[in-house]
Write a structure and sequence with these properties.
This protein is an alpha+beta fold. The chain contains 27 helices and 15 strands. The chain is 48% helix and 10% strand. The longest helix is centred in the C-terminal third of the chain and has 37 residues.
């Protein structure tokens, strides 16, 4: 029986395994030697390794040479500036930017402390440090392929902060190394130190030594003491942990360590360091951040357009000192922002305190300039949801002029053509659009149907002219209609994808500008830090999408919306405007109310599209009542704040109701004219009947073909 405490059997098996392993290893090594002797394997491995190293080095050198190193200092010195449509400065865009100061405006104690702490060989190294790289490689191995930081010179840190992301990867470290070499080649050491100190982060939202001096000690960077300079050098390791506002004890402990390092580096004597350690850090916050982002939603939209239309990167826009010339009208923008700040102009919050949201945009119909935009209420989030440009909501009856009434004019109808006003069902699904007040006149003139936003005659008219014609008209106005929504309901604004206020404002520019659809935009020109024009958008043309006569006739009907239609309560006092209201209903189970409320209004000088609603609609978050009750106050306030500064204007037509009344008065008793008009209308109606019959016959024929499987 084997004794488990006897190690002899284990030694025996271990010895047998070792002998077997040595024999296998000997045969393997002998085979590899023969293979290497025959095929020169080691040489090939070395050659491939050298080729790969050369290719990688060439690639990284190319990236470093083609980066913006030459313009780095000028970019760090300047902020991206936004100009309005009159080329007046409207604000600035900030990212990793502080108030830039030259090295002679910074206390000499600061670079001494920084060099002693971060990079003692700064003035002699070629942008990198071999010992530091060795430490990084060792750390990379110890932490199993994870870069943990450290080992970077000041030049490498500058490359990382100003030109690269903060992501810790091996490839990024390699790129950082080659960029540092290029920076060291292009700039003097004093320039590199200057850029580093102006681009470093010091916590509490402050970049650069000058703003940090104001934030923590209430003085200029030139006046920093040894103790304060050592404190700043200490903060570079971890600004959130070592800043004296939030962690005074940590800051003092780390400062004292930096002072000792300065002694070791012969930048201070022991007596000077001891004296500095005895000094208290007296905090004095005099930093006032420049209010550069004055028009947040407009500036957000400018950044979005620069990225999406012109392919720029956000970090370049924010950091590279561009001059961006825009379509902004500062007076209109300020007026729109003031309007949105008035809570009384919006419906009450939901029971849980969720506010009704909104978005509004103003466009000059003559040149497509977006002059003002507000994308929401409450606190602004940088490049967050802009409800004026980014939301997609059902447009309700604001779609009718685009999808129904304008294409009806093209089909031969007129502003006073008689439409059927009866509750009618259509198609296999028995779509039955009803009027909001549930009353029906039997017949109604087109201009009355539009002004009163009646659904029954609008659907009847779209059925007569054909959905396909309505879809084609809407797409001429720059709005794509998904195939799944191409039915009668889309003409009344009830389609799934929806539209943004930006899209609606652009579409209505064709009515305001004699049938020409504006090429709407925020940016007219972008100039980089060197003065080169990289975007020139100053000569965009409008496109004629409908005839000027139809635009005029549409405007005459849309004037009645505010004169005696659904927009009466939204009419700005003392001003004449044309346009359309709209709303989309919530399910009956919610109660009486709407999901979205719209007004798109215009003069010959400006088009304003305004939407309100909840971001997420449900049984406890919907708008009570109809369009003129909810959106009317904010639209009225906006227009009353904007129009006094918008210049004089005059429509080229009268309201349709006025034209109709004048024609009736002139034609009263003239039975020849009445007979002629009746004959003309009869012929036109006959044409429409025949056209409709033909379309129905084609539809029946196609159904029969499908039924018999042909």
């Amino acid at each position: 029986m084997n004794n488990p405490n006897n190690p002899a059997p284990f030694k025996k098996y271990a010895l047998q395994f070792w002998q077997w392993f040595k024999a296998v290893w000997h045969r393997f090594w002998h085979f590899m030697r023969l293979l290497n002797h025959r095929f020169q394997l080691v040489r090939w491995i070395l050659l491939i390794g050298l080729v790969l190293f050369f290719c990688l080095s060439a690639f990284l050198t190319y990236k470093a040479k083609t980066s913006d190193v030459q313009d780095l200092k000028s970019a760090l010195k300047t902020t991206t500036t936004i100009y309005d449509s009159q080329n007046q400065k409207a604000g600035s865009l900030y990212s990793q930017k502080g108030t830039f100061v030259e090295l002679n405006q910074i206390s000499k104690n600061v670079p001494k402390a920084v060099i002693s702490t971060e990079d003692r060989s700064f003035y002699t190294n070629p942008g990198f440090d071999i010992k530091g790289i060795a430490r990084s490689v060792l750390s990379y191995v110890i932490h199993r392929g994870q870069i943990t930081g450290g080992g970077s010179t000041l030049t490498q840190q500058l490359a990382k902060n100003a030109l690269l992301t903060q992501q810790q990867t091996f490839s990024r470290k390699l790129e950082e190394l080659f960029l540092a070499i290029e920076i060291n080649r292009v700039y003097s050491k004093d320039d590199i130190m200057t850029m580093y100190l102006n681009n470093a982060y010091f916590g509490n939202g402050v970049w650069g030594v000058q703003d940090a001096a104001q934030k923590y000690f209430g003085k200029n960077a030139a006046d920093l003491t040894v103790s304060e300079s050592a404190t700043f050098a200490a903060m570079l390791r971890s600004p959130s942990y070592y800043n004296p506002i939030n962690h005074m004890d940590n800051a003092i402990s780390r400062r004292n360590l930096v002072l000792d390092l300065m002694v070791d580096n012969k930048q201070l004597t022991s007596q000077e360091a001891s004296a500095a350690k005895q000094q208290q850090l007296t905090l004095n916050d005099t930093y006032a951040q420049s209010d550069g982002y004055r028009y947040p939603y407009f500036f957000d939209a400018v950044i979005d357009e620069a990225i999406n239309r012109y392919g720029l990167k956000e970090e370049d826009i924010m950091n590279k000192g561009y001059r961006i010339y825009t379509t902004l009208d500062q007076t209109q923008q300020a007026a729109m922002q003031r309007s949105f700040n008035q809570d009384w102009a919006f419906p009450a919050d939901a029971a849980d305190g969720t506010p009704v949201q909104g978005g509004s945009i103003a466009v000059d119909p003559k040149n497509g300039y977006v002059t003002a935009v507000v994308g929401g209420r409450g606190d602004h989030v940088f490049r967050g949801l802009n409800r004026a440009t980014q939301i997609k909501r059902q447009p309700g009856s604001t779609m009718k002029p685009l999808a129904i009434y304008e294409p009806a004019l093209e089909s031969g109808y007129h502003y006073d053509s008689v439409l059927q006003d009866k509750l009618t069902s259509y198609g296999k699904n028995h779509y039955t659009p009803g009027n909001a007040d549930n009353t029906y006149a039997g017949q109604v003139p087109m201009y009355v149907a539009l002004a009163q936003s009646k659904n029954a005659p609008a659907a009847w008219l779209l059925d007569k002219i054909g959905v396909k014609k309505g879809v084609g008209a809407v797409e001429k106005f720059g709005i794509n209609v998904p195939e799944s929504d191409q039915n009668l309901a889309f003409g009344l604004g009830g389609w799934g994808k929806g539209v943004s206020p930006y899209q609606m404002a652009r579409a209505y520019t064709a009515f305001a500008n004699n049938g020409k659809l504006a090429n709407t935009h925020f940016i007219t020109k972008i100039v980089d830090a060197t003065g080169a024009v990289i975007v020139d958008n100053s000569d965009l043309k409008s496109k004629q999408v409908i005839s000027s006569s139809h635009a005029k006739e549409m405007t005459s009907m849309l004037l009645d919306v505010f004169k005696n239609g659904t927009g009466q309560t939204a009419k700005p006092s003392g001003y004449t405007v044309a346009g359309k209201t709209g709303s989309t209903e919530v399910p009956d189970s919610y109660g009486y109310g709407t999901k979205d409320q719209w007004i798109v209004g215009y003069t010959p000088n400006i088009v304003v599209a305004t939407w309100i609603g909840f971001d997420n609609t449900d049984q406890t978050h919907f708008l009570k009542g109809i369009s003129e009750q909810g959106v009317a106050p904010i639209f009225k306030l906006e227009m009353e704040n904007i129009l006094p500064n918008d210049g004089d204007y005059q429509f080229n037509t009268q309201p349709a109701s006025t034209i109709a009344a004048d024609e009736n008065a002139n034609n009263k008793g003239n039975w020849f004219d009445d007979i002629g008009k009746n004959i003309e209308d009869g012929i036109e109606n006959g044409k429409n009947v025949l056209k409709n019959a033909q379309e129905k016959a084609n539809e029946w024929y196609n159904d029969l073909k499908s039924f018999f499987g042909n």
